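SusC/RagA family TonB-linked outer membrane protein
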Amino acid sequence: MKHRVLFFVMVAFLCLHANLAFAQSRQVTGRITDPNGHPLVASILIKGASGGTSSDATGAFRLQVLESADSLIVTAVGYMRQSVAVKSNTVNVQMIADEGFNVEEVVVIGYGTQKKGDLTAPVATVNMEEAVKRTVATPMDAIQGAVPGVQVVSGGAPGSTPTVRIRGVGSFNNESPLYVVDGMFMDNIDFLNPNDIEDMSVLKDASGAAIYGVRAANGVIIVTTKRGKLNTKARITYNGYAGFQTPTNMLKMASGQQFADYATAIGRKSVVDASIDRFNEPGNTTPMSTDWYGELLRSRALIHNHNLDVQGGSDKITYSFGLNYLDQDGIMDAKNFHKKYNIRMQTEARVTDWLKVGFTAHINNFNNFHPNNAAFRQAYFASPLYPVYDDKLELADPVKFGSSSPIGIPTGFWFNNPIATAYYNHNESKGFQILPSAYVEANFWENKITFRSQLSQRYQSVHGIQYNPVYYIDNDQRADRSYLRSAQGRDSNYILDNLLTYRDASEKHHWSVLLGQSAREERWRETWVSANDVPASQEFWYAGQGAQGLGSATGYGENGFRNAGVSVFARGTYDYDNKYLLTATFRADGSSKYQTKWGYFPSVGLGWVLSREKFMEKQNLFDLLKIRGSWGLLGNDGIQPNAGYAIVNSGNAFSGIYGSFGENIGARVPGYRVNRFFTQVRWEIVEEWDAGIDFALFNNRLNGTVDYYHRETQDLAFDRPIPFLWDRVYGNWGTVANSGWEFGLNWADKRGDFGYRIGANATTLKNRVTDLGGLQNIMNGFPEWAAEFPSRIEVGQPLNYFYGYEVQGVYQNQAEINADPIASRYNELNPGSTIKPGYLRYKDQNGNGELDESDRVNLGNYLPTLSYGFNVGVDYKGFDLTVAFQGVAGNKIHNLNRAMRRKYPQMNADQAFMNGLWTGEGTSNTYPSAEGSVAPWNLQASSFFVESGAYLRVQNVQLGYSFNLTPSIPFRVFATADRPLIFTNYNGFTPEVSGMGFDSNVYPVAATYSLGLRASF
């Protein structure tokens, strides 16, 4: 009996062992990648079981699973949780970026980090995986349209710096945000390669930015570059692309025949006849037609970018090393380009369990050849009735460029040959920059207390060379002597930060305290020298005794500044049960720039996570619902350091004394008068409050944020006139307010092998001047044409709004003119230059029957009232496609190209203008007649020259395919179209006009088409 029992037990055991062995014999392998095919370190669990593993640095994993297991759960920080069916022994998973509100995500803030769920300020984080899909030269161009509250206005010239505005404009002096790159303060981050950036945070409100005090009034953008990871094998990644740029939205100018018809209509047929006589074969009366923009622009301009990254780490040391090379040609068909070389180094060592040290360095070398943008202005003016080259101009040298003077069109700057302007130009800058940073960090008392000391430095040297050769085209476009200007600029800055942080918790109470001290110094010096009669060969481009070039200089100058500052700051955070949140910040800044030495910048933020309350436990709609509010003060020290000066006036106008003897009897004796002005200039102050909601729904697939902000710039600094004198004095006189709404919404989901995501953001802006120190308004405008085409700063109105008459249409016949009190009154007073059919009709705003100053109104301004962006992305197995859009609305552009006709009636015009001209009753109610287009009545500042700046641009399209070249080498190929399409009604190359919105023909923005690849080894 005992033997039977033992036999059955053994059989049962063997069967069970066999079954278990069979069930455990299944091994699943695969790789985890991000949406672009890059490897991810992720956690892989067996659904319904306790087993699991993690992927390695290559994204690969191995896992034993029961035969009955049907799916795996894959999670990674920053990506959506996925449930993946196990249909075979190979499971490859492409994760979906979690664009939403992940409460555990760590966000970089000023002098530290914080969990996203604990934030009380509207800190925006940039998805750098999406940003690097853009084929652009600068990181800020890469995030255009991607962050609510941030407006980026791109330039077209290679290497140009984009204009960046955060929540409007509150200063006449400086509107750019502060950039903090690995602890160093920067004015821009053009030198960085987007591939080198690991994290980018935008501190938009006072609560988040007040920790930077006097530098933070325009917002703060914090950049953290890539770091190595502990216990990670060395990984080499190459990412690069090559492609070409091409002009988009080409501005079509009038053809030769259109210009000839127009010139005839305005009484200038002589230039048409002169052109036909000079350039045509006998009997050919068809006017020649030069397409100046076609001649000035390349159809293809090359761009290529290459990036190599090495990362890894042991159990004690991490390291990261990056190399980057960018080469971008300009679309102007002349010498213009941007080249830069970047080296990035980072290492961190854990010396002991409580002490670590680190070092980071960025080395940047660049070479920019700047185009002469005046050529684009001249291409709009230039008549199509003469050629680019003219062999009949015997005196033209060294190149036989054509001139408009032989056909009777006056020359001068605006009518110079634009191709020659672009050709006779050498404006080059070369330089290098190094940003080293070293730190030591110690953890005490079970990592509750941390002390960190960091020294960050910046040194930059830039050498600029401008050279104009001897040449001759006509009596106006010429250079009888060569000219050389050589300038050397040097920046030398440092920041020393000492930070003490205490973090602790007790049951449901969590708190942290940061105490900091910072000292900084900024130095800049530029010296320049100029010389004439310098040979064209670059080996002689030196000036000075003993130099290889000219013996002595004809000009010399030096500029510079040196500023120092010291700061102390503190930040405290507290939360109870992760439901009730408090953040308080205070910074005291001392500065050497102003008579007032110290400024104080407090802020406070509150948050309430409603979704953690008991009354929300049973609801199934919200995964997260948090409301927050904040208030604080910020400073802007980007203004003139002082305004004290003395002016000595001399001459007869300043004397009432007459001579009484000799030759001076009865003659006024010259006198002197000293005017003394002095004001206590200080930094501008921004007071801001913000209220917002963060939410996530449907298992975190839908998430978003809504904010309302109000920021007021006080002590606005500007020059104001002194009563009864021509002089002006600079001081803190005004106040400007910006307010609006910000919206962000994202949806992401995965259905089997198919994943998709949709995102959108929008920002509204209301900008108003609320005080000008007693003044009601200040006239402004385009520097050369302010009197004719003004903008205005006025209490209760937006900054620099366009100021002029409102056009109501075009007079169609004489009866309309006679019935209009304004026109009939004008004709009565001006019988020699009467208003005729085909002239513009202006609105009589006050109904007094006259067109006078009181009829000028606000015609709009350059700031968009709405900025927005949206994107769509899909992926299926190895394929992925993303499309991004960006646009603005509510802003205006002053088309100064058309308005210049006031001074230069001989100029050409765009085809839309020519085709729209009034030619008889009913033909146009928008454009004047040809005769009227040069009449003074129609060339006054008016809404005719102010156009909508609204546009919608297809910002980026990328199609990619990811696969494994070998099991350990992930590979991705992609095709990208950057800025391929734009939809706008503006009559210009681009509605992206920097400055105050006056378009005098900017460098066009190009579309870029490229192919690229990424591989990791």
